[in-house]
What does this fold into?
Amino acid sequence: MATQLVRRISRLARRVRDLGEAGMTTAEYAVGTVAAVAFAGLLLAVVRSGPVKSALSDIIVGALGSGA
It folds into this structure.
């Protein structure tokens, strides 16, 4: 009898857990997408700044120039 009760409680807990997480995947993807877009915007702003653009340009020119 105790084994049956444990099984019933386990099934009920699994059902409650599954119902409680319905739609959570979509919300997690949405939050992750918003965070990725915000990070990409920040990265774009940093890369477009003068000192970083100059440093990247120097690195590229140096790499292409040294191979010739």
Q: What stands out?
A: The chain has a mean pLDDT of 83.
